[in-house]
Task: structure prediction
Amino acid sequence: MTRRIILDCDPGHDDAMAILLAHGTPEVSLAAITTVAGNHPLALTTLNALRVCTLAGIHDVPVAAGCAAPLVRPLFTAEDIHGKGGLEGHEWGEPSVRPVPEHAVDVIVDIVMSAPGEITLVPIGPLTNIAMAVRKEPRIAERVREVVLMGGSFTGGNVTPAAEFNVYVDPEAAAIVFGAGWPLTMLGLEVTRKAAADEEVFRRVSALDSPVARAVVGMLRFYQRQQMSAVGVSAPPVHDPCAIAQVARPELIPCREAHVEIELDGRLTTGMTVVDFRRRGGVQPNATVGVDLDLPGFWDLFIGALRSISGVV
Ligand code: RIB
Ligand code: CA
Result:
Protein backbone atom coordinates (compact mmCIF):
# COMPACT_ATOMS: atom_id res chain seq x y z
CA MET A 1 0.00 0.00 0.00
CA THR A 2 1.27 3.48 -0.83
CA ARG A 3 2.56 5.37 2.19
CA ARG A 4 1.49 9.04 2.22
CA ILE A 5 4.28 11.15 3.71
CA ILE A 6 5.09 14.74 4.64
CA LEU A 7 8.81 15.26 4.01
CA ASP A 8 10.26 17.96 6.31
CA CYS A 9 13.68 18.93 5.00
CA ASP A 10 16.58 21.39 4.90
CA PRO A 11 18.13 20.92 1.41
CA GLY A 12 21.20 20.23 1.42
CA HIS A 13 22.48 17.61 -0.97
CA ASP A 14 21.23 14.52 0.78
CA ASP A 15 17.82 16.12 1.34
CA ALA A 16 17.65 16.62 -2.43
CA MET A 17 18.34 12.90 -2.91
CA ALA A 18 15.54 12.12 -0.44
CA ILE A 19 13.04 14.27 -2.38
CA LEU A 20 13.99 12.45 -5.60
CA LEU A 21 13.78 9.04 -3.95
CA ALA A 22 10.33 9.83 -2.52
CA HIS A 23 9.08 11.09 -5.86
CA GLY A 24 10.44 8.16 -7.84
CA THR A 25 9.36 5.37 -5.46
CA PRO A 26 5.84 4.03 -6.13
CA GLU A 27 5.41 2.86 -2.52
CA VAL A 28 5.64 6.49 -1.35
CA SER A 29 3.32 9.41 -2.08
CA LEU A 30 4.33 12.98 -1.17
CA ALA A 31 1.40 14.71 0.58
CA ALA A 32 3.58 17.80 1.18
CA ILE A 33 7.16 18.98 1.37
CA THR A 34 7.95 21.34 4.24
CA THR A 35 11.18 23.21 4.80
CA VAL A 36 13.07 24.21 7.91
CA ALA A 37 16.25 26.13 8.71
CA GLY A 38 19.14 23.75 9.21
CA ASN A 39 21.86 23.11 6.66
CA HIS A 40 21.09 26.65 5.51
CA PRO A 41 18.82 29.57 6.46
CA LEU A 42 15.15 28.97 5.67
CA ALA A 43 15.02 31.09 2.51
CA LEU A 44 17.76 28.93 0.96
CA THR A 45 16.44 25.55 2.10
CA THR A 46 13.06 26.57 0.67
CA LEU A 47 14.56 27.78 -2.63
CA ASN A 48 16.50 24.52 -2.89
CA ALA A 49 13.38 22.42 -2.30
CA LEU A 50 11.65 24.37 -5.10
CA ARG A 51 14.69 23.82 -7.35
CA VAL A 52 14.61 20.04 -6.83
CA CYS A 53 10.84 19.93 -7.39
CA THR A 54 11.32 21.85 -10.64
CA LEU A 55 14.13 19.54 -11.77
CA ALA A 56 12.10 16.38 -11.03
CA GLY A 57 8.78 17.72 -12.36
CA ILE A 58 7.09 17.67 -8.96
CA HIS A 59 4.32 20.22 -9.59
CA ASP A 60 1.40 18.77 -7.62
CA VAL A 61 2.92 18.63 -4.13
CA PRO A 62 2.51 21.64 -1.80
CA VAL A 63 5.85 23.08 -0.65
CA ALA A 64 5.55 25.12 2.55
CA ALA A 65 8.25 27.06 4.39
CA GLY A 66 8.44 26.56 8.14
CA CYS A 67 10.51 27.77 11.06
CA ALA A 68 13.46 30.06 10.43
CA ALA A 69 15.27 29.28 13.67
CA PRO A 70 15.52 26.60 16.35
CA LEU A 71 13.15 26.85 19.34
CA VAL A 72 15.72 28.22 21.76
CA ARG A 73 19.25 28.27 20.36
CA PRO A 74 20.71 30.32 17.49
CA LEU A 75 20.77 28.65 14.07
CA PHE A 76 23.86 26.56 13.29
CA THR A 77 24.30 25.80 9.57
CA ALA A 78 26.45 23.46 7.44
CA GLU A 79 27.96 25.43 4.54
CA ASP A 80 31.19 23.50 5.06
CA ILE A 81 29.40 20.40 3.79
CA HIS A 82 26.77 21.73 1.40
CA GLY A 83 28.50 24.86 0.12
CA LYS A 84 27.19 28.42 0.03
CA GLY A 85 24.22 27.69 -2.24
CA GLY A 86 23.28 24.46 -0.55
CA LEU A 87 23.02 22.44 -3.77
CA GLU A 88 26.33 23.18 -5.42
CA GLY A 89 27.42 20.98 -8.28
CA HIS A 90 24.55 21.77 -10.62
CA GLU A 91 23.61 24.93 -12.54
CA TRP A 92 20.14 25.84 -11.20
CA GLY A 93 17.76 28.10 -13.12
CA GLU A 94 14.81 29.94 -11.61
CA PRO A 95 12.43 27.35 -10.12
CA SER A 96 9.01 27.12 -11.77
CA VAL A 97 7.51 25.54 -8.63
CA ARG A 98 6.27 28.11 -6.11
CA PRO A 99 5.69 27.63 -2.37
CA VAL A 100 2.19 27.73 -0.87
CA PRO A 101 1.51 30.74 1.40
CA GLU A 102 0.62 28.63 4.45
CA HIS A 103 3.23 28.01 7.17
CA ALA A 104 4.68 24.49 7.24
CA VAL A 105 3.43 23.91 10.78
CA ASP A 106 -0.15 24.66 9.69
CA VAL A 107 0.23 22.44 6.61
CA ILE A 108 1.48 19.55 8.76
CA VAL A 109 -1.35 19.94 11.30
CA ASP A 110 -4.07 20.35 8.64
CA ILE A 111 -3.01 17.34 6.57
CA VAL A 112 -2.54 15.03 9.56
CA MET A 113 -5.83 16.06 11.22
CA SER A 114 -7.72 15.55 7.94
CA ALA A 115 -6.33 12.04 7.39
CA PRO A 116 -6.17 10.21 10.71
CA GLY A 117 -3.84 7.22 10.68
CA GLU A 118 -2.70 7.85 7.10
CA ILE A 119 0.23 10.26 7.24
CA THR A 120 3.85 9.40 8.02
CA LEU A 121 5.97 12.40 9.01
CA VAL A 122 9.50 12.10 7.61
CA PRO A 123 11.74 14.81 9.13
CA ILE A 124 15.25 14.87 7.69
CA GLY A 125 16.46 18.18 9.14
CA PRO A 126 16.26 19.83 12.57
CA LEU A 127 12.95 18.95 14.24
CA THR A 128 11.72 22.51 14.81
CA ASN A 129 8.63 22.28 12.55
CA ILE A 130 7.59 18.90 13.94
CA ALA A 131 7.93 20.06 17.53
CA MET A 132 5.93 23.23 16.83
CA ALA A 133 3.22 21.20 15.09
CA VAL A 134 2.69 18.84 18.02
CA ARG A 135 2.73 21.77 20.43
CA LYS A 136 0.18 23.63 18.33
CA GLU A 137 -2.10 20.57 17.92
CA PRO A 138 -1.22 17.78 20.41
CA ARG A 139 -3.85 15.50 18.85
CA ILE A 140 -1.57 14.88 15.87
CA ALA A 141 0.43 12.60 18.17
CA GLU A 142 -2.38 10.03 18.02
CA ARG A 143 -3.35 10.74 14.39
CA VAL A 144 -0.05 10.33 12.58
CA ARG A 145 0.65 6.83 11.35
CA GLU A 146 4.35 7.16 12.29
CA VAL A 147 7.30 9.52 12.48
CA VAL A 148 10.38 8.23 10.61
CA LEU A 149 13.29 10.60 11.07
CA MET A 150 16.89 10.87 9.99
CA GLY A 151 18.76 12.10 13.03
CA GLY A 152 20.66 11.18 16.14
CA SER A 153 23.24 8.48 16.73
CA PHE A 154 24.19 5.93 19.35
CA THR A 155 27.71 5.56 17.99
CA GLY A 156 28.94 9.15 18.19
CA GLY A 157 28.07 12.39 16.49
CA ASN A 158 29.19 14.32 13.41
CA VAL A 159 29.00 17.88 14.75
CA THR A 160 30.51 16.99 18.13
CA PRO A 161 31.76 13.62 19.36
CA ALA A 162 28.30 13.18 20.93
CA ALA A 163 25.76 14.95 18.70
CA GLU A 164 24.43 14.46 15.17
CA PHE A 165 23.65 17.64 13.20
CA ASN A 166 19.81 17.53 13.04
CA VAL A 167 19.50 16.97 16.79
CA TYR A 168 22.43 19.27 17.63
CA VAL A 169 20.84 22.26 15.83
CA ASP A 170 17.57 22.03 17.80
CA PRO A 171 17.87 19.64 20.75
CA GLU A 172 14.83 21.12 22.51
CA ALA A 173 12.71 20.32 19.44
CA ALA A 174 14.14 16.80 19.38
CA ALA A 175 13.23 16.35 23.05
CA ILE A 176 9.63 17.33 22.28
CA VAL A 177 9.46 14.97 19.28
CA PHE A 178 10.95 11.97 21.11
CA GLY A 179 8.65 12.65 24.07
CA ALA A 180 5.38 13.07 22.13
CA GLY A 181 4.27 9.45 22.46
CA TRP A 182 3.72 8.77 18.72
CA PRO A 183 5.18 5.76 16.88
CA LEU A 184 8.70 6.92 16.07
CA THR A 185 11.56 5.38 14.11
CA MET A 186 15.01 6.96 14.42
CA LEU A 187 17.57 6.41 11.66
CA GLY A 188 20.85 7.60 13.07
CA LEU A 189 24.36 7.89 11.74
CA GLU A 190 25.12 4.20 12.40
CA VAL A 191 22.67 3.42 9.58
CA THR A 192 23.09 6.44 7.32
CA ARG A 193 26.89 6.52 7.25
CA LYS A 194 26.62 3.14 5.49
CA ALA A 195 24.69 4.78 2.60
CA ALA A 196 27.94 5.79 0.92
CA ALA A 197 27.98 6.71 -2.78
CA ASP A 198 31.00 4.86 -4.20
CA GLU A 199 32.26 4.87 -7.81
CA GLU A 200 29.90 2.04 -8.79
CA VAL A 201 26.97 4.22 -7.68
CA PHE A 202 28.32 7.15 -9.70
CA ARG A 203 28.66 4.83 -12.72
CA ARG A 204 25.10 3.49 -12.40
CA VAL A 205 23.59 6.97 -12.00
CA SER A 206 25.62 8.36 -14.92
CA ALA A 207 24.45 5.47 -17.12
CA LEU A 208 20.86 6.71 -16.79
CA ASP A 209 21.98 9.62 -18.99
CA SER A 210 19.10 11.98 -18.17
CA PRO A 211 18.95 15.61 -16.97
CA VAL A 212 17.99 14.41 -13.47
CA ALA A 213 20.81 11.86 -13.37
CA ARG A 214 23.35 14.44 -14.58
CA ALA A 215 22.20 16.85 -11.87
CA VAL A 216 22.52 14.12 -9.24
CA VAL A 217 26.05 13.23 -10.39
CA GLY A 218 27.06 16.90 -10.31
CA MET A 219 25.63 17.42 -6.83
CA LEU A 220 27.14 14.20 -5.46
CA ARG A 221 30.59 15.01 -6.89
CA PHE A 222 30.52 18.38 -5.10
CA TYR A 223 29.26 16.73 -1.91
CA GLN A 224 32.03 14.10 -2.29
CA ARG A 225 34.71 16.81 -2.44
CA GLN A 226 33.27 18.55 0.63
CA GLN A 227 33.02 15.31 2.59
CA MET A 228 36.60 14.42 1.65
CA SER A 229 37.95 17.77 2.82
CA ALA A 230 35.74 18.05 5.92
CA VAL A 231 35.52 14.43 7.04
CA GLY A 232 38.14 12.55 5.02
CA VAL A 233 35.75 10.12 3.32
CA SER A 234 35.90 9.46 -0.44
CA ALA A 235 32.41 7.88 -0.72
CA PRO A 236 29.96 10.49 0.61
CA PRO A 237 27.17 9.22 2.89
CA VAL A 238 23.70 10.21 1.71
CA HIS A 239 21.99 10.25 5.08
CA ASP A 240 18.47 11.51 4.33
CA PRO A 241 17.26 9.06 1.64
CA CYS A 242 17.59 6.30 4.28
CA ALA A 243 14.43 7.66 5.91
CA ILE A 244 12.51 7.28 2.64
CA ALA A 245 13.96 3.80 2.13
CA GLN A 246 12.76 2.73 5.59
CA VAL A 247 9.21 3.89 4.80
CA ALA A 248 9.19 2.24 1.35
CA ARG A 249 11.08 -0.98 2.21
CA PRO A 250 11.32 -1.44 5.99
CA GLU A 251 13.19 -4.71 5.41
CA LEU A 252 16.19 -2.70 4.17
CA ILE A 253 16.80 -1.21 7.64
CA PRO A 254 16.47 -3.57 10.63
CA CYS A 255 15.45 -1.73 13.80
CA ARG A 256 15.38 -2.42 17.55
CA GLU A 257 13.20 -0.93 20.26
CA ALA A 258 14.90 1.53 22.60
CA HIS A 259 14.29 4.35 25.03
CA VAL A 260 15.75 7.55 23.59
CA GLU A 261 16.27 10.81 25.47
CA ILE A 262 17.99 13.99 24.36
CA GLU A 263 20.80 15.60 26.38
CA LEU A 264 20.04 19.32 26.76
CA ASP A 265 22.53 20.42 29.39
CA GLY A 266 25.79 18.58 28.78
CA ARG A 267 28.90 20.74 28.52
CA LEU A 268 30.27 18.25 25.95
CA THR A 269 27.17 16.21 25.13
CA THR A 270 24.32 18.62 24.39
CA GLY A 271 22.32 17.25 21.43
CA MET A 272 23.28 13.65 22.14
CA THR A 273 20.57 11.04 21.59
CA VAL A 274 20.98 8.82 24.63
CA VAL A 275 19.76 5.46 23.25
CA ASP A 276 19.00 2.73 25.83
CA PHE A 277 18.39 -0.73 24.36
CA ARG A 278 18.60 -2.41 27.78
CA ARG A 279 14.89 -2.56 28.77
CA ARG A 280 15.81 -2.30 32.47
CA GLY A 281 14.17 -0.68 35.46
CA GLY A 282 10.77 -0.66 33.80
CA VAL A 283 11.87 1.99 31.29
CA GLN A 284 9.56 1.65 28.31
CA PRO A 285 10.79 2.07 24.72
CA ASN A 286 9.68 5.27 22.96
CA ALA A 287 11.28 4.56 19.58
CA THR A 288 12.55 1.92 17.21
CA VAL A 289 16.12 2.62 16.20
CA GLY A 290 17.79 1.58 12.96
CA VAL A 291 20.79 -0.71 13.45
CA ASP A 292 21.84 -1.76 9.95
CA LEU A 293 21.36 -1.06 6.21
CA ASP A 294 21.01 -3.40 3.24
CA LEU A 295 23.34 -1.31 1.06
CA PRO A 296 22.80 -3.08 -2.30
CA GLY A 297 19.05 -2.98 -1.71
CA PHE A 298 19.23 0.71 -0.82
CA TRP A 299 21.12 1.68 -3.98
CA ASP A 300 18.87 -0.49 -6.15
CA LEU A 301 15.89 1.41 -4.72
CA PHE A 302 17.59 4.77 -5.30
CA ILE A 303 18.70 4.03 -8.87
CA GLY A 304 15.26 2.61 -9.64
CA ALA A 305 13.65 5.84 -8.47
CA LEU A 306 16.00 7.97 -10.60
CA ARG A 307 15.27 5.71 -13.58
CA SER A 308 11.55 6.20 -13.06
CA ILE A 309 11.89 10.00 -12.79
CA SER A 310 14.18 10.08 -15.83
CA GLY A 311 11.59 8.25 -17.90
CA VAL A 312 14.20 5.60 -18.65
CA VAL A 313 12.50 2.24 -19.08
O1 RIB B 1 23.70 14.55 10.12
C1 RIB B 1 23.17 14.45 8.82
C2 RIB B 1 21.97 15.32 8.67
O2 RIB B 1 22.33 16.68 8.83
C3 RIB B 1 21.35 15.25 7.26
O3 RIB B 1 19.97 15.46 7.37
C4 RIB B 1 22.00 16.39 6.53
O4 RIB B 1 21.18 16.91 5.47
C5 RIB B 1 22.08 17.42 7.63
O5 RIB B 1 20.82 18.05 7.71
CA1 CA C 1 18.89 17.15 6.02
User: Anything to note?
Assistant: The mean pLDDT is 96. The radius of gyration is 18 Å. DSSP finds 13 helices and nine strands in the chain.
